[in-house]
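Hi R.,

Here's the chain you asked about this morning:
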Amino acid sequence: MRPSRFRPPDWLRNPHLQSVLASSPLRAARARQRLHQVAAQHTPTLLTLPGGVRLQGVASTPRARPPRATVLLLHGWEGSIHSSYMGLTAARLLRRGFAVFRLNFRDHGGTHHLNEGLFHSNRLDEVVDAARAVAAHWPGLPLLAAGFSLGGNFALRLALRAPAAGLPLRRVVAVCPLLDPAHTMDCMEQGPALYMRYFERKWRQSLARKRALFPQIHAFDDAVLRLPMRPLTAWMVQHATDYPDLAAYFDGYSLAGDRLRALTVPADILMAADDPVVPSEAFPHIAGFANVHLELARHGGHCGFIERPSMDGYAERWVAARCLAALEASAVESGADSEQEDDHALA
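And the predicted structure, written out as tokens:
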């Protein structure tokens, strides 16, 4: 576990301020500005995946030079490719010479019309297929993935699945990833109401939009939309998944306990000890796993890590730096392997 270099000024040390500013219009405007300033080509891209699944994203390529690697960026629940952390991180990566694919999960970023079925957090197969398509979009380049919150959870599960899926994933980077969904639900119910209300409002809007697009399939009434988070999630599990109950559904995408011990793809994780959404107490445990590299900051809130009034943040710099370090480490290892091959050839 590495000590964090994130040291916000005193007025930015409140976790709720950090979390609220992270999704504020000011930070969104900063992200648009940063993306506009970087010299890159941005191409909206529709991925047609096995089973007829369609996911949309934006493929961005730096103009200054051929990209050195590809990074798949994954947003959090009810976020999108236009979330401020996605834009700011993409801009940083593009400046470092990476190609970037910002992926919208199903039913996110206004893509409800692309698929009949509802989004849920166990739809890992289609994210694996999307990662495979992104790798094929830039053939021959090393592939990395980075995610925030639920996107961080997807990135870590992608790393666990990658070897069996034949996915050439070099490394994953996760900011405030969700580890234990059941415990997170408990903590959110007991914590400040503003976070639960935020996610309930966003999810209800998403479900209402899905119903309007596919009324013959999603014929639930407004009483369903008025359900609180836990019973609404239980309803969704019953009607949109093959899981028998809420506990099984949560377990399906949990990374709690020793599940990350099986990682063969290295993972860098940035977590804030004061995160008001994702409980941080489980993170020191996973820091002992061989392929997990944890940086636990004292402050930062949930996916905040804002450093100054400009709304620039430590997290996007950190993601870009960890991706670059992964490439440099691979280059050193490749150089060492080449030297050994040369020694054998000379012998």
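Residues 335-347 have pLDDT under 50 and may be disordered.

Let me know if you need anything else.
M.
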